[in-house]
Specification:
- Helices cover about 30% and strands about 15% of the residues.
- With about 120 residues, it is an alpha+beta fold.
- The strands form 3 sheets. A two-stranded antiparallel ribbon has the order 1-4.
- The longest helix has 21 residues.
- The chain is elongated, with a radius of gyration of 20 Å.
- It starts with a helix and ends in a 23-residue tail after the last helix.
Length: about 120
């Protein structure tokens, strides 16, 4: 099994085809083969470690390539502070792993039972 997985990840190369010409082959040292049946579980395993960097008191939910961080507290500012700390740690972790977070795919949603906090 390990030999088979290693074969999927080793000795991969890429080249560029442009204007009828093909570039030299370059070694591919990062990433997973696209459309591989093993790519989703490998990626899931890889990002599962992000939960280790999120501070105590915040919950992490993951599905496919989506990471959701949830916080709650009686005081809104405490929840916001914990959420910001969590986001900062996830961003630092992602940068160290050479993964980019997409701000356009990121959002914050606030739920409250206090009607005075309604927008």
């Amino acid at each position: 099994m390990l030999w088979w997985i290693g074969g999927l990840l080793r000795n991969r190369h890429y080249c560029v085809y442009f204007n009828g010409e093909t570039s030299h082959k370059w070694p591919m040292r990062q990433g997973l083969p696209q459309r591989s049946v093993l790519a989703p579980p490998f990626f899931r395993f890889y990002i599962s470690w992000v939960a280790e960097v999120v501070p105590k008191g915040a919950d992490v939910l993951m599905s496919a390539d989506v990471v959701t961080v949830l916080t709650q507290h009686q005081q809104k500012q405490q929840a916001v502070s914990l959420l910001q700390t969590s986001v900062d740690k996830v961003a630092t972790w992602s940068k160290a792993k050479k993964m980019q977070l997409r701000r356009t795919k990121s959002e914050v949603t606030f739920f409250s039972s206090d009607n005075s906090e309604a927008a």
